[in-house]
Amino acid sequence: MRVLATTTNPLKAQRLQELLRPLGWQVISLAEQQVPIPEVPHLSPLDSALVRAAAAAKASGIPAIADESVFELQVNGKLEHYSMHFGPWNTALERNLRLLERLRGLPIERRGARFITVMALAQPSGALEVFQGETAGLILQRMENQGGIGYDPLFFVTEASKTLADMTPEEREAVSPWRRAVERLVEAQQASKPRLQPSMPAAQPEAKPEPPPPQPTPMRVLVATSNAGKFKELREGLAPLGWQLFSLLDYPFKLPHEDGSTFEDNAMLKAAFATKQVGIPALADDSGLEVEALQGEPGVYSARYGGKSSDTERNLYLLDRLRHVKGEERRAKFVAVLVLAYPDGHLEAYRGEAHGLILEAPRGEGGFGYDPLFYVPEAGKTFAEMSLEEKAHYSHRGKALRALLEAHRNGPPPREIVVLE
Ligand SMILES: O=c1[nH]c(=O)c2ncn([C@@H]3O[C@H](COP(=O)(O)OP(=O)(O)OP(=O)(O)O)[C@@H](O)[C@H]3O)c2[nH]1
Ligand SMILES: [Mg+2]
């Protein structure tokens, strides 16, 4: 069965797909099927999830899932909800300070809170089901850990005896209300259709390899991309550093509109915005394809070339633009710029380029984006015909990553002192 998840975040759609696999469901996201979802500002989380799921199911004609996560607490006898959308404040730090101010003077025994996810499943017929996951905790009286993500440094999880900010992404998912809500949804579907899935196992976390031995203080870094293909390559490439990596799945905010005219500008824009949102260093990747015969097109517009919304359509559009260009004239290069931004405003940038030819028809199943069309003569293969490691050896991203690795070989590189003349 196909089910529409009302998210544009491919990382979230992918995780949902993994968790719903026992049901045999295929998750598609709003990135693949666009349907209008009403903006529902002043509704409770329950109403908001219901309204969005119902609207999506009606518009798409297939079942739809929507979720909403909030912190819920009682202030002076009244229930209040706090989310990413709380107040006009832009950064996590601002929101945290506002929340602390709101609760000032409340003794710890009155600071009990719940982190809640409401997940609604709507059928095109109008039938609705709701599943809720909860995590109990306390809102601390001060931020113990300046780093951390969103409300994480303030939310002390009772069962784990630590704040969300002090958890690894794995520990965080294990106590996350979102994960619990998905599990309840899976259990309920299995219970209601016992004869269809007699021996299906319950959703289990994937067996994860043992984490590397603890380093002195691993740096916590948010990999600020919504592109699942990039995320996979960045995670692999950064592994030797032993950093604790977070993704937009751990903290799903929208990256800013990329209106820069260079890869450097856009990578900076994304990384600087992201580190402000979360209070830990953030790494962004801006990349794209420059085709010589098209005067460097699609360049910074690679992700939205020709206004097309899928990789396949963009590849067809590129082939069409090059239909009169032959052989060696189809030279192109991929460029990737990685920017690592620190919460104090400091930035590091790394660039990598890969040269090749645009084929006249796609080849290979791997990779993402334009990979099936990008042929690397010295390898005799397209990026899509390579393994992850092989692609990293030749690719723009692999090269930029190696420059970053080299600079961080002995910890964060010394900050350059610029002497103004
Ligand atoms: O075949 C490809 N192999 C690659 O290795 C590659 N790297 C980049 N690209 C293309 O360039 C756009 C980047 O645009 P982009 O940097 O804005 O990223 P994005 O919007 O996809 O994600 P985000 O990181 O901004 O969230 C991407 O969407 C792709 O079309 C690639 N295509
Ligand atoms: Mg982008």
TrEMBL record:
The keyword Nucleotide-binding applies. Substrate binds at T225, S226, N227, A228, G229, K230, S287, F368, G369, Y370, D371, K391, H396, R397. Coiled coil: none annotated. Residues 187-218 are annotated as: Disordered. InterPro entries: dITP/XTP_pyrophosphatase, ITPase-like_fam, RdgB/HAM1. Mg(2+) binds at D286. It holds the Pfam family Ham1p_like. GO terms for molecular function: dITP diphosphatase activity; ITP diphosphatase activity; metal ion binding; nucleotide binding; ribonucleoside triphosphate phosphatase activity; XTP diphosphatase activity. Pyrophosphatase that catalyzes the hydrolysis of nucleoside triphosphates to their monophosphate derivatives, with a high preference for the non-canonical purine nucleotides XTP (xanthosine triphosphate), dITP (deoxyinosine triphosphate) and ITP. Seems to function as a house-cleaning enzyme that removes non-canonical purine nucleotides from the nucleotide pool, thus preventing their incorporation into DNA/RNA and avoiding chromosomal lesions. Homodimer. This is dITP/XTP pyrophosphatase.
